[in-house]
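To assess whether the prediction recovers the assembly geometry, we first specified each molecular entity separately, as shown.
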Amino acid sequence: MSLHGCEHLTSLKAAYGIQPFYIIHSYFIACSSIEARRVKAKSCFCHTCRYRGLRVHACLSCVYFGCYNEQHIHNHAKTKKHNLSVDLSYGTVYCYACGTFVYDEELENVARKQQRAAAATLGIKRDFAPWEPGQDEIELLRRNPKRRKVSENSHIGLRGLINLGNTCFMNCILQSLTHTPILRDYFLSDQHHCHMTANPQQCLVCEMGRLFQEFYSGVRTPYIPYKLLHLVWTNARHLAGYEQQDAHEFLIAALDVLHRHCQGQGTNGLSYSSSHHCNCIIDQIFTGGLQSDVTCKQCNNVSTTIDPIWDISLDLGPGPGSTTAAIAAGSNLVLSAVGDPALPMAVGPALVDLPTASLSPASGFTNSPSNYEPTSLLDCLKRFTRPEHLGNSAKIKCSNCSSYQESTKQLTMKKSPIVACFHLKRFEHSTGYHKKISTYVSFPEELDMTPFMSSSRNNSNGYTNQIVRESATGLSCDNKYSLFAVVNHSGTIESGHYTCYIRSHKEQWFKCEDHVITRATAGEVLSSEGYLLFYHKQLLEYA
Amino acid sequence: MADLQERKIKDAQMRATINQKLVETGERERLKELLRTRLIECGWRDQLKAQCKEIVQSKGLEHITVDDLVAEITPKGRALVPDNVKKELLQRIRTFLAQQSSM
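The predicted structure of the complete assembly is given in tokenized form:
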């Protein structure tokens, strides 16, 4: 087998050139015109048995199509001594004299060119190609013969982190980041090129790269992330010191510093809010688009804004401005509970936090289930994306009817991020008191964000047929996510401890508590309290 | 009996018509591209490649033809296609046919 075909192909090419292949390939294999597609649709069948389907071959010497599976093309080749044919499904050339497929560089170039042209006429993006090592990579592989194979039960990537004095808030975020599949792929494939050329030792992105190297080196003794801690201290001064910090605050600060260092900006560079149109790895992975639609009650004019977000903070406890409704709902439950002795257990949790409801005036919202305390992530998201009446005291000037009007506001996701980070607001800082909300909020292992997307708000998705649309949205995997890390806080708002669960492979969960790593079950993870929830998109688009 | 025969012929005609429509409109190429992407994503391609390598290594490069490999790997390959990939493709074909018939 070589890239220069066989002697039979050579003599055929000497007699007729590449023309026969060129014509067959452009009309029956890779069509670039409507006419060619029509011809292809009509005439690709076996001339002997009229079979249409896979592995019908075209003779390269005369006008004959025959199927390979029933050997009709073989018989043709034998009787007519036409040794070469093209597979109409794949464009590969077969030689019956040699009894094997032949590979010819010239023909393959023709085929590739026509396939690209054909794909372009149909608007198919053929960006996805399996990785083939280039010259440099072959050389690199040759010089580094050691290979690490990752099997189902290998522990590679798992490493404890030493607590440097109340730094469990940092450790659990580092564990979550190092087990973010797409971030891991970025760092392990060495794609970061340092932009902090003046002082590369100060680059947090480079330090993250070193952390990934340490985690996936196979060493199993705990790692001491002192350099990383120091870098965070110098770059995010509000986190410096030996006090316990909020893990969420640390996550956002770390992402911000990473994002700035990706662009070579030092501590005094632009902040996140002013430079969000960025293509750095942090933005590619974590940035989602939050759409806010404000509808004027008077003229129904909708003004839309889209803001980039790195995480979604979700309120727990009764919704703001809904005290009356919540209490009303609560008392209904009490009444029904009294009437039915079987119920009190079930309504217990819903009543526990009622006294904490803020005493702001009630809005016109009743009946909305979101006025209850959310007990699941989906509840929280429903509440997050429901239309909210802005009320009499918050009139907004409508750009359409130019008057101050009451309006409703609705938040939806315009762009779903690759990694969705949900922050359950368990720490309440209201005037006069600070308190931790320990309500159990259930969260799923697999999450579909489709109902919370802006496209669901407009409710069409481009399908005209309703049945087709409904079944298509049910099947679409575009907004499906899998849980891969959960950060938990135990204790009170004054003193507590952070731990996290991370997923190393499918269904392989581990609990990380500073330097100790133990195996965990999915059940344990899903029944934990949950403070930060990290979800990874199941399918990535190749845009 | 005659009914069964008739239905078989009708089914075959239907299949041919659908196939022709898929090719004519280019939808078949789009579906193929989608399938290709999905199979790569879910690891099917890597899995099959590894199995092919194993077969070639065990039989020896000199003693195996593409036909042998195809015969041995095809049933395995079919069995390994994930259900949700099949479902998605089926859905896409349904959608396409619904659009065609409403036109």
